[in-house]
Write a structure and sequence with these properties.
The complex is a heterodimer. In chain A, about 40% of the residues lie in helices and about 20% in strands. Chain A is α+β, with helices and mostly antiparallel strands. Chain A folds into 3 domains: about 25 residues; about 70 residues, no CATH class; about 160 residues, Immunoglobulin-like (Sandwich). In chain A, strand 1 and strand 2 form a beta hairpin. In chain A, helix 2 runs antiparallel to helix 3. Chain B is mostly helical. Chain B folds into 2 domains: about 35 residues; about 550 residues, Cytochrome c oxidase-like, subunit I domain (Cytochrome C Oxidase, Chain A, Up-down Bundle). The chains are: A alpha+beta, B mainly alpha.
């Protein structure tokens, strides 16, 4: 009876997994850009490898449980005293070490990929977008185009996008699952996230890090379009939208939810992002090396900048 | 009236009022019950003032079970809220409070006292000691923990619950974004309970190092004692970080300091870093003793010695070191760059190696064994595959580039429940079932116990496997609602059903206790499982001095040697035994801490100052107090032993 329940349990797991994943592709496993593709590949690779481990452990477990059950043995059987064997234990350590070394290699390689300009778009000039969060909205500033939007993001497809993230308030996390993984937006520094969309399309984006009462609805829409369409949109905004004034921006920062809105000019002109010397223009690697030394300086800098 | 306004709940709802009434009525019923049965004196003499490690252990157990209920109710509320899109059962504020308290209660006030119960009850018995090294301090640990727990738990009816998540990241947790006193409760209640934990850590390390029975070298300790030793070493290194962190958080909130502010030189990331410098070792504090319990149980019911004793110990030592080297993996997405992430990604994956060694050793312990499927064994055998699943998803999360997609999603939630429930909760229930006869002199019903294990596992799989899938589909954690169009609803409904099934299994556990109290045989001797280590060598019920004669051991499984190889455990004759006196001071000091904490939460400064002076007075008093304990005479020992042996003989 026990075995039956066990198999019923296992069948159930696999049925749930296959049926439900079969319906439609899961967002994270349906990548639309090189960064998300790297991540989805890593995820699929590790799922396969890890399934192998789970199945191996399960198979050994079922085998020993069936073979060495008391009811399958003579009454006078006395299990032997076995201390352990260096060889067997070396193998038990060796196999995981090989797996971990392999995965470490994959992990490190992917780290440098997702922290660099998206593969295939190194030649394009990245579009810089400042994405800042406030309770519970996203503000997207396009400094080169001189426009700003709230709660929606238009980007050209086929071009690297460099997001500069920071927050007016709690730590938030900028996440467009189909384009790539998330990164934190914080109040006292700017983080950089590299993304790109391969083709035009519409995606969902959200804040993934809990930030208080309005967190659940802290989402935004992403539209990727051709470079020409993007240029047209920028032009149109310049013709139709209101300029973003300091008062208007203060009003936008008030806690609450807002729909979409569009402005000419960006808030960066009167409220610059909390950028310090480190991390803003250097590559991420330099940044991390410097971080420990720089953190004290940056505190002082932020001190000065606030007074 | 202004003074009392602050105690009102800022976001009241029907559920909160109903709980207030429920709690009030329960309290009245308890007080009336104790008065009616004239048990106040008994309660004071035998429990509140006790310094006996076994009784203190059982009090930890009661708190753990109570908190399991509270945390479980929180869990069911969350799962129900998310079972349907746009559900109106909880509004956002209430949902945020519920998941915050669920996390804090389950980790700090359920899992921690549960393992501390095992530390207290088992360590002295396993090493052949009469009590812990500092029995009075042990009582103080309990009462500090208890009062911290009490303070945290009154938050939702007095002043409002914390709502910034169990991680309480700044700046969300500062006064601007969390203006209610809820987060003050978080800072101060956990501080008081944490002091208790830190003190017991020191106590258990001393006990294990100094009070082992003759012949028990370090490498001859039972595996649970080893795991408890390492866990407590981690406690002593990790909890001071929490103490400092909470003190800094308290000062930011109450006194306007700038440790975690976003301007003025403060740094919000510092909170996240320090929190996880404590928080990650904390999960190993929970899981290592669980591993210890599984080792005891698997070896007992495979009827074999534990395979690879040395590598088991070595793997725990390695895990304890690595547990301090991985904290950054909780925020790979903070922007520290590819180099830092790569280092922490590798150290995190490396922890899988010693953990894998343990899994293999358990499998090899089963090999060539003679496996008996008792309830504790069933939990252990369900633990191995389910925990392996949780472990490998941990390796997946450790791949930092991919973690950008898992982070803050239900995938992560599924992962840590997948390690904590089969890892820690199953171990606690398995250990409870295993040691129940030692504590109470009768066994829990095996049939109901096995049903409970299977139902719990079915519920677990249904509740948490769907979360892996919705996580990969983009469901962020801590969202109180979602729209129909996201397509999360069906899997969340499955998760709710799973949670319901788990609730049934816990109800069955309670029923099993009731059933066994009424019907179970009391004629079970002192070794009902045919076990191997020293705790089973003494009588059931265990006399207050544990062992009439200090045992002498020669191997890791002293009792087994005595049973099978004719090793003589108890040599010599009875001698008078020195025991500590009971004391009410730990309880009184605990009570003063409670009032002090309450005054701090609500910034009632005169009261805070008075109670602070009270605390100091208690400490000074203790320093000058002369209490040399008492002796149990040889006659008394003979009488007790004869009675305990007599009971056994009659029953047989």
């Amino acid at each position: 009876m026990k075995m039956k329940v066990k198999w019923a349990l296992l069948t159930m797991i696999f049925t749930i997994a296959t049926v439900l994943t079969g319906c439609e592709p899961l967002l994270v496993l349906d990548p639309k850009g090189p960064q998300a593709k790297t991540q989805a590949d890593d995820i699929m690779l590790s799922i396969l490898l890890m399934s192998g481990i789970v199945i191996a452990v399960l198979a050994i477990l079922v085998y020993v449980l069936v073979k060495y059950r008391a009811s399958n043995q003579r009454d006078d059987y006395e299990p032997p005293h076995i201390e352990g064997s260096p060889l067997v234990e070396a193998i038990c350590i060796g196999i995981p070490i090989v797996i971990v070394i392999f995965l470490s290699f994959v992990s490190v390689k992917s780290n440098y990929e997702v922290e660099a300009t998206p593969a295939g778009y190194e030649d394009t000039k990245p579009l810089v977008v400042y994405a800042s969060s406030s309770n519970w909205k996203w503000h997207f500033s396009y400094p080169e185009e001189g426009i700003e939007t709230v709660n929606y993001l238009y980007i050209p497809a086929g071009r690297a996008i460099e997001f500069k993230l920071y927050s007016y308030g709690p730590i938030t996390s900028f996440w467009i699952p189909q384009l790539g993984g998330q990164k934190y937006a914080m109040a006292d520094m700017v983080t950089t996230l590299h993304l790109a969309a391969d083709n035009p399309g519409e995606f969902v984006g959200r804040n993934a890090n809990f930030s208080g009462a309005g967190f659940a609805e802290n989402t935004f829409d992403v539209t990727a379009m051709s470079q020409t369409d993007f240029d047209e949109w920028v032009e149109e905004v310049h013709e139709t939208a209101e300029p973003l004034t300091e008062e208007k921006f203060e009003e936008l920062l008030e806690p609450g939810h807002l729909g979409r809105s569009t402005y000419t000019g960006t808030h960066l002109e009167f409220a610059p992002a909390p950028e310090h010397n480190h991390g803003s223009t250097d590559s991420e690697m330099d940044h991390s090396e410097h971080e420990n030394h720089d953190s004290n300086h940056s505190d002082e800098e932020s001190d000065h900048s606030h007074h | 009236m202004d003074f009392f306004d602050r105690f009102a709940v800022p976001h009241p709802s029907f559920l909160i009022y109903a709980s207030m009434v429920g709690i009030g009525l329960t309290m009245v019923a308890i007080v009336l019950g104790i008065t009616y049965f004239k048990k106040w004196g008994y309660l004071w003499r035998e429990w509140i003032t006790t310094v006996d490690h076994k009784r203190i252990g059982i009090m930890y157990l009661l708190v753990a079970l109570l908190m399991l209920f509270r945390g479980g109710v929180d869990a069911i509320m969350m799962r129900y809220q998310l079972s349907m899109p746009d559900n109106k059962f909880l509004e956002s504020q209430h949902y945020n409070e519920v998941f915050t308290t669920h996390g804090v209660v389950m980790i700090l006030f359920m899992a921690m006292p549960f393992i501390t119960f095992f530390f207290n009850y088992l360590i002295p018995l396993q090493i052949g000691a009469r009590d812990v090294a500092f029995p009075r301090l042990n009582a103080l640990s309990f009462w500090l923990f208890f009062m911290g727990m009490g303070l945290f738990n009154i938050s939702f009816i007095v002043g409002g619950s914390p709502d910034a998540g169990w991680t309480s990241y700044f700046p969300l947790a500062n006064n601007e974004f969390s203006p209610s006193v809820g987060t003050n409760y978080y800072m101060i209640a956990i501080q008081i309970a944490g002091m208790g934990t830190l003190i017991s850590g020191i106590n258990f390390i001393t006990t294990i190092l100094k009070m082992r029975a003759p012949g028990m070298k370090l490498m001859k300790m039972p595996m649970f004692t080893w795991s408890a030793f390492i866990a407590n070493v981690i406690v002593v290194f990790a909890f001071p970080v929490l103490t400092v962190l909470l003190a800094m958080g308290t000062m930011d909130r109450l006194f306007g300091t700038n440790f975690f502010t976003t301007g003025d030189g403060g740094m919000d990331m510092l909170w996240a870093n320090l929190f996880w410098v404590w928080g990650h070792p904390e999960v190993y504090i929970l899981i290592l003793p669980a591993f210890g319990l599984y080792s005891e149980i698997i070896s007992t019911f495979a009827r074999r010695n534990l395979y690879g004793y040395k590598s088991m110990v070595a793997s725990m030592v390695v895990i304890s070191v690595f547990s301090f080297l991985v904290w950054t993996h909780h925020f790979f997405t903070m922007g520290q760059g590819a180099f830092t992430n790569s280092i922490f990604s590798i150290t995190t994956m490396a922890i899988a190696i010693p953990t894998g060694v343990k899994i293999f050793n358990w499998l090899f312990t089963l090999w060539k064994g003679k496996i008996v499927f008792t309830t504790p064994m069933l939990y252990s055998m369900l633990f191995i595959p389910l925990f392996t699943l949780g472990g490998v998803t941990g390796v997946m999360l450790a791949m930092s580039a991919a973690d950008y997609q898992y982070h803050n999603t239900m995938f992560l939630v599924a992962h840590f429940h997948n390690v904590i429930i089969p890892g820690v909760v199953y171990a606690m229930i398995a250990g409870l079932t295993f040691y129940w006869p030692k504590m109470f002199g009768f066994m829990l019903n095996e049939r109901i116990g096995k049903w409970t294990a299977w139902i719990m596992s079915v519920g677990f799989v249904l509740a948490f496997i769907p979360m892996y899938i919705t996580g990969l589909d983009g469901q962020a954690r801590r969202m109180y609602t979602y729209s129909e169009s996201t397509g999360f609803s069906m899997l969340n409904m499955v998760a709710f059903i799973g949670a319901g099934i788990m609730a049934i299994s816990f109800a069955l556990l309670v029923y099993n206790i009731y059933y066994s109290i009424r019907y179970a045989s009391r004629d079970i001797g002192s070794d009902p499982w045919d076990a191997r280590s020293l705790e089973w060598a003494t009588h059931t019920p265990v006399p207050e001095y544990n062992f009439a004669i200090t045992p002498q051991v020669a191997s890791t499984q002293g009792f087994w040697d005595a049973k099978k190889n004719g090793h003589e455990l108890f040599k010599g004759k009875y001698e008078k035994i020195h025991m500590p006196n009971n004391s009410g001071w730990p309880f009184i000091l605990g009570c003063i801490f409670f009032v002090f904490g309450f005054a701090m939460v609500f910034s009632i400064w005169p009261l805070a100052i008075v109670t602070l002076i009270g605390i100091l007075v208690c400490l000074v008093y203790r320093s000058f107090e002369k209490d040399h304990g008492r002796y149990i005479s040889v006659e008394e020992i003979e009488e007790t032993e004869a009675k305990l042996r007599g009971v056994k003989n009659e029953d047989r």
